[in-house]
Specification:
- This protein has 576 residues and is mainly beta.
- The chain is 4% helix and 47% strand.
- The strands form five sheets. Strands 4, 5, 6, 7, 9, 10, 12, 14, 16, 18, 20, 22, 24 and 27 form a 14-stranded mixed beta sheet that branches. Strands 1, 28, 29, 30, 31, 33, 35, 37, 39, 41, 43, 45 and 47 form a 13-stranded mixed beta sheet that branches. It has a ten-stranded mixed beta sheet with strand order 8-11-13-15-17-19-21-23-25-26.
């Protein structure tokens, strides 16, 4: 019997608009447009601070999207919002929020301030008299904040500028965002120092300039990066201080270290680095540095460097070589005979599904006459079966009393910030069953409210992608297609058949088993669980699970807790 368990370490929008790349959004989707609705000009000359902040006040807390059409939006003080809001640009090369050059309030490094922040707080409350960070209020209810498809520029002559100050809990993060300093100066590009950040997914983030590209500061909770590009930092690219940080595909062009992993008081810094290239290093520098090995944890896989004297330094000692295949600062533990190595499951990128063009969208409200006894499932089903590529639900709550079958050529189920609301008439039947059809389908900006025993069942050959979605459980059925879970807060997940699963930034809470694997291949980049639970339970020969980086957070007394990981005949590898 081939069994293996490996654990490295434990860390107990109304009006049509365009976003992404020349993609039109339906005019009646309930999206807030800062130009049309709040008078922003986006001409790079007028001050749009007040207009953007007014739009944020109207949207925050409601899982609403604030859209910034193409343009340059000049600002002179912080743009801020907090919890359940998505700020959406027209593309990182088309929408820019730019700080005025030599802007009052940003010219003194000891009196720093941020340009965009997902907190409604005065920066002065988080800094000491000498500019040192003294900490913001711990917040574990800043749920589901997103910044997507735009550039944040700190302009020139603003050495006290922080590009983006970020906190989001139970999901959120940045997607396809540039953060840049026009003259290279500034304090931090992406500031994750506020206590309580994560789990968040930061994908395709590019940071140019600043003293520090990214700084993560606190133990709670988890930050996951995929495709992080850092360049022209003056002190360090990524500084991880007492946080659980996972990075896949780090691209650094710097003379200074690409990454530091440090302790913060008694909080351990845990850095998991999976794949990367660090170029331009100075001959007296090391690419990745980790200090205090008794209190920090470092895992590096598949890293290449050039220019640096070494790829990795731990506690002042350079590790041999300028490239790394596998390195762990802690001993690898295994319960079974065989090599002490991670499974190295194959990795696939999340499908980039083309955004539908005009004429391919259908509004579920076009079938409102089919709503009987407040059950929206028949109307949504009719929209799916209409032959259109994208089904959208203008922002609202939609009660579901019968199962919706996703089939045919539909490519998008666009929630626009809406929620499916559970009704007892549904019983234990799934809210959505993904069936057969051509091409993958994306479920986006949709939440599940109420006690759905089964939010999603996957029975057909369609590949399923979820993103910006919330609180869904999932179960597979025979002959189902691939699954991609991006930034999903929800669960539990039951993979009952041979299937391939790729998940990024998973967050599960509760006392039940979170992942049950009965024959699937499950790859997870960044995991956080909360509660006394079994994280992963491999039940059969052929079940393969790999968890790369994360945090196990019992949040309560663990004297009667179940085993964190159970392996009965499969292949289970864990770095958390």
């Amino acid at each position: 019997m081939n069994m293996r368990l490996i654990i490295l370490f434990l860390f107990l929008m109304p009006g049509s608009f365009v976003f992404g790349s020349d993609v039109a959004f339906p005019s009646d989707a309930g999206i807030i447009d800062v130009k049309r609705d709040y008078g922003a000009l986006g001409n790079g000359v007028a001050d749009d601070t007040a207009a953007i902040n007014a739009a944020c006040r109207a949207a925050e807390g409601a899982f609403q999207t604030v859209y910034l059409p193409p343009g340059t939006y000049l600002v002179s003080s912080p743009i801020h919002f907090q919890t359940w809001m998505l700020m959406q640009g027209a593309g990182s090369s088309r929408t820019t929020i730019k700080l005025k050059d030599t802007c009052p309030g940003f010219t003194n490094p000891t009196a720093w301030s941020w340009v965009v922040a997902s907190v409604n707080a005065d920066p002065a409350t988080q800094r000491g008299a000498g500019g040192e960070y003294i900490g913001g209020p711990v917040n574990n209810t800043a749920f589901s904040s997103f910044l997507c498809d735009l550039t944040v520029s700190t302009g020139s002559g603003n050495p006290g500028a922080v590009g983006v100050h970020w906190i989001s809990n139970n999901g959120g993060g940045l997607r396809d965002v540039n953060i840049r300093s026009e003259d290279g100066v500034g304090l931090i590009g992406l500031d994750l120092r506020n206590p309580g950040d994560g789990p968040c997914l930061y994908r395709n983030v590019r940071i140019q300039g600043f003293d520090v590209g990214v700084e993560a500061y606190n133990s709670l909770y988890l930050s996951v990066f995929e495709n992080l590009t850092l360049s022209a930092q003056r002190v360090v690219g990524l500084r991880n201080r007492g946080h659980a940080t996972v990075v896949r595909n780090l691209l650094s062009t710097n003379t200074v270290p690409a990454a530091q992993n440090l302790v913060n008081g008694y909080y351990e810094g845990h850095l998991t680095l999976i794949g990367g290239t660090c170029t331009g290093g100075a001959a007296n520098q090391v690419a990745v540095i980790s200090e205090n090995p008794a209190e920090t944890r470092l895992v590096v896989r598949d890293l290449s460097t050039s220019g640096y004297r070494a790829a990795v330094r731990v506690n002042g000692t350079d590790q041999p070589g300028t490239s790394v295949v596998d390195y762990a600062s802690s001993p690898i533990e295994t319960q079974f005979p065989g090599p002490a190595a991670m499974p190295r499951l194959p990795i696939e990128e999340t499908p980039d599904v083309a955004w539908p063009v005009a004429g391919e969208w259908v509004n579920v409200r076009a079938y409102q006459s089919l709503v009987v006894n407040d059950d929206w499932a028949p109307a949504i089903q009719a929209a799916i079966d209409s032959g259109k590529a994208a089904v959208y639900m203008p922002k609202n709550g939609y009660r579901i009393k019968s199962t919706i079958l996703v089939r045919g050529g539909v490519r998008w189920i666009q929630g626009c910030g809406s929620a499916f609301v559970y009704d007892p008439a549904l019983g234990s039947n799934p809210c959505i069953r993904v069936g057969d059809g051509s091409g993958p389908v994306v479920i986006e900006r949709l939440s599940w409210e109420g006690s759905f025993p089964n939010a999603i069942a996957h029975a057909g050959n369609k590949t399923l992608v979820t993103r910006l979605a919330r609180y869904a459980s999932y179960r597979s059925e025979a002959a189902c297609g691939n699954l991609f879970l991006d930034d999903m807060a929800g669960g539990p997940y039951d993979f009952a058949f041979p299937q391939r699963v790729w998940a990024r930034a998973m967050n599960c809470e509760g006392a039940q088993t979170m992942i049950t694997n009965r024959g699937a291949t499950v790859w997870v980049l960044g995991w956080k669980s909360e509660g006394n639970c079994t994280v992963a339970y491999n039940t059969t020969v052929g079940a393969r699970t790999e968890i790369l980086g994360g945090m196990i957070y019992p949040a309560t007394d663990t004297t009667s807790a179940p085993p964190t990981f159970i392996n009965r005949g499969g292949d289970l590898g864990v770095m958390v």
